[in-house]
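Z., the sequence and structure:
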Amino acid sequence: MKILAVGDPHGKLPKNLRGIIKKNKIEVIIITGEVSCVPMEVFAPRELKKFGERYSYKNFKEMVKKLCSFKIPVLVLRGNAYVGSKEGNVITKRIFSK
């Protein structure tokens, strides 16, 4: 089985990812954390937190859509950027509950 491991993409995947998958006959993708971007607004004053949360969620949805388009299994491990803060846990729960 051919596995592609991607570490902390932070909302960006290689432009040629589809070609890499096809050329190497990848059967599974494993992402080791931080799928979506981690906006600094998450750690900013209260009035900016909702912006960061919405952006991170939107970015996550876009990443999932692209990853699903490859039609192979994808395993995502939770990253550490949101761990340890109340705001981070709220964002993580919202993202992974959808």
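The CA atoms of residues 25 and 66 lie 17 Å apart. Helices lie at 17-24, 46-68, 86-96.

Let me know what you think.
H.
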